[in-house]
Amino acid sequence: MFSIGSSYGGGENMVNAGVTMRIGAGQTTNLSDRAEMAREITDLKSTVEKQKNEINELSGLKSVVSEQQERIEQLTQLVNQMVASK
Fold it and tell me: Which keywords does this chain's UniProt record carry (predicted)?
């Protein structure tokens, strides 16, 4: 791999260049890395499933709160009517 860089500013201009070489065949992936990745994917899937369940539960609670809010508004109107009629 070749790299070239430059820097301008502060009255000093600089240029650099570099070469990087790989020595040996090497191994692109480790089996332990794959196993670790599989565990992480499993954990993430579990987390997503838990979050979906929580979202569903919160959606149900949201509808309950909306119904309660409507009921509160109705009761407030009734109380205001009772106070006004006295």
Answer: Coiled coil
Task: Give the pTM.
Answer: 0.46
- Asked if 6 contacts 14 with a C-beta cutoff of 8 angstroms, the reply is yes
The pLDDT tens digits for 36-76 are 889 999 999 999 999 999 999 999 999 999 999 999 999 99
Q: What are phi and psi of 26, to 5 degrees?
A: 65, 175
Domain count within the chain: 1
Element (H, E) at 53: helix 31-85
Contact 13, 7 (CB under 8 A): yes
56: three-class secondary structure by DSSP? helix
The CA distance from 41 to 57, in Å, is 24
